Structure formats: C-alpha cells, structure tokens
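Hi F.,

I've been meaning to write this up properly since the lab meeting, where we talked about keeping a consistent format for the predictions we share between groups. The idea is simple: the sequence comes first, exactly as it goes in, then the structure tokens exactly as they come out, then a line or two of notes. No screenshots and no reformatting. I'm using this chain as the first example so we have something concrete to point to.
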Amino acid sequence: MKSQFLIILFLILTSNIKAFANGGSFTSGNLASGQISLMDNRQISIEEEDLRITLYRGYAKVDVIYVMKNNDDTVTATLGFPSLLHTRSKESGTMQEIGEYTIAIQTEGLFGYGSSQKISAKYMYKGEQVKWIKMPDIFGNDYEEAPLEYPEIGWYVSNIDFKKNQNVKVTISYISNYINYGWFVSDNTDTNDSQFRYLLSIGSTWKGPIKRGKVIIDKSNIQHNINILPAGRFIKKENTYTWEFKDLEPNGNDNLLITINNGYSQMASYGSQEMTWYYSTDKKYYLSFKPEKISASSTLKKYYPLNLFDKKFETAWVEENDNDGTGEFIEMKFNKMQKLGIIGIIPGYNKTKELFYKNNRIAELEIYADDKLIKTVQINDGYTSFASYDLSAYYLIKLSDNNISCKNLKLKITKVYKGTDYNDACISELLLLQKLDKEPEAGGR
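Output, unedited:
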C-alpha cells in the first residue's frame, strides 16, 4: 500500500519535467509531510484530530492537535511523524526542509488534562538518528550519482507513555517549505505553482478510524488564489477553508494537495549596459526597471535606500526615527515619464526569520504618483522563504490594469506590524514592473 502511494507521488512530481540541451530543471522544498504514524502497536486510537495549515509566502505553518486513547494495558507507544524527501546518506550534515518541529503532550487525569509538556523527538532516517537531512536538487544535474528515485521517508520519532485506558492530547507544530519545481534555458526560467502536501494516508496505522476531525486551511497571509484536492470537501469562508469529518479511515484519496497559483516565467535580455529582466504571469508580460534616484525621509546608518534594489536579503532600508516608522517614506525619481503597473515589496528585514519578526514590518502604505495619492494598500504580514530574485517572494501591488505614468513615486508608511525587539521599520526589497502590450523578444546567453 505504502510503496504504491510513493510511486504515484513520484509520477505526479515528475510528470511535467522537461529536458533542455542548454538548460535543466530544478526543485526545492519539502515533497510532503503528513499524518503521525503509530510505529510499534495498534492499541492506540485517535479520538479527535484538529489540523490547521496556515499559508505564508514560501512555506506553511502546521499545527495539529490529536486526542489519542490507549485501549488496553499500560504501554509506551512509539510515534513517528513523516517527512518525504530525496537524499543520500552523505547529505546528513546539511539542513532539511521541515523546521521548528515541536511535540508536546497533555495527559488526562481525574480533573481533565494537565499542563502541556514538550517531549523529545529524534530525527530518524533509514533507522539511524541524524540531525539534519537535505532534499537535494533531484530534478537537476548536480547529483549524477543519484538518479531520480522514489521518495524516501524520514521520521521525527517520539515515545509516549500511556496508562491503561488513558487519553493523551498530543500537539505537533512545524513549518514546511513548499515544493517548487521548474526548468530553465540559460537565464530564462519557468517556475511552476507552489505546492504543499499533507498525507493523511501515512497515518493509517491506528486502532480503528479517526473518530472525528477538522482541517482548516488559512490563506489570509498570501494574496494568490489556491486550489485544494480532494475537491468538494472544504467549505470556504473569506480566507479560510474548513473540512470536518467523522470515522475516517485515511487512504490515498484523502491526501491533501494545496496549490498556490503563483507560477511565473522570468526572462533575461542582454544589451550594452546591465541585463534587463522580464516577467510573465497570468498571461501578461512585465518589464522590470529601477529608478534613476532614490531617497528616504530618514536612514539608519548603513541601511541605505539603495539597498532596496540590490536583490540581497542581507541588506535593507531601515528608517531612523524615534517612532515606529509611521510617516516615514521612500521617494523615487525618473528622468522621464515612466509607465508603471505593479510594485513588488518585501516588507520587513528578511535576512532571517528571527530578524524579520524582531523588527517592525510594513502593514499599510500610501502610494503617491507625482505628489497625488493614488492608492492605499494593506500588506499581509509574514516572512518569506523564497529567494530575493523570486517573483513569488514579493507582495505585489497592482496600480492599474495597464499602467500609470509618473516622474516621481513615493511610498509612505501609515501602519506597521510591531517587532518583538526593535522599533525600526524595515523594507528588504522593491520591484517596479511595467506592463507590456505583447510578449518581449528576450533571450539569454
């Protein structure tokens, strides 16, 4: 059963791969995670399951609460949480694609459940404990000794003591990067929609069915539309999708696939000066450009406004004011009337996830074209795990179905998300895109 499922998953992931004489294909992210599995006996049942998947730019935050019941004598149960990956054993010294994994338990007593206690988890791969596992570039050419293989499974393994007929509440939390794959020719790249998989079928090792459960998918932190499989199960209300079930015996038809519709193409053109970049998304084409001059209302030392167009998360623009950044602004000037359709922004110090949340982030902007307010926009909060050159990393602000024209552009901060440690507002990157009337004639080298 499990081997059949892995073969199906492999075929899904490789069905769109193309080969090029002057390029290749690539992938990044976690193939799948899924339902916790009982690894040593079948006397434990799942009475209730509450799964919440929160989507961000580049990754999903997963929180799941199980109520487990021991239906027999006292036992120490071994539980394994799965992470599907492609790897070789010598890759075990580098980081893998699931992060911030925690597991905690609350045992039931005479007066209800006790306080939450974290328990240890060992990461096991091929029966051996390892610190990290990396999923290499399985669709590329960097791993000549490791041709395409079926996904393998690593396990976060924990032991839980159950008294006779006792209930235990188990809470698991982690983040998982989306799987992204695509192909390239020279500097031209096609990137498919991001995907996240949660495999309920792997957890079909418990005593009896899952008595009752609920799955909530929250997309309030991303701006792209999503598709969910299996179709027809989730009820949508604003930015959340909910599925409730009873007596579920999970199989392959119950595995969740969430597709974020953020695919795009990136094209390069070489001229006498620096390279020009074009993007294509939703069958529309855009030219990326930079301002001739950029300035700021204030600047913290070394965190200059020029950093906004360097495609580096190690740098950022940071304002220098006694308040939280409200009222501070970035101003850009062009030598002539410039057409502009979309502004992309990475609204925080995205060097690391820790620094992102320690500093203030932009929650709302006023956009001025030639000193006229043209748009006020609210920006979803959230660190991005996408790379700085990846269009999917940016929160995209659409100014017009076509373009506006201006010589001066100003972005003014009107609200911020507060940081935990610092009171400085930060922006990592900006992207200016002009909508084109037709597909550009661009070619790499």
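Notes:
The first strand starts at residue 23 and ends at 28.
The radius of gyration is 24 Å.

If this format works for you, I'll send the rest the same way.

G.
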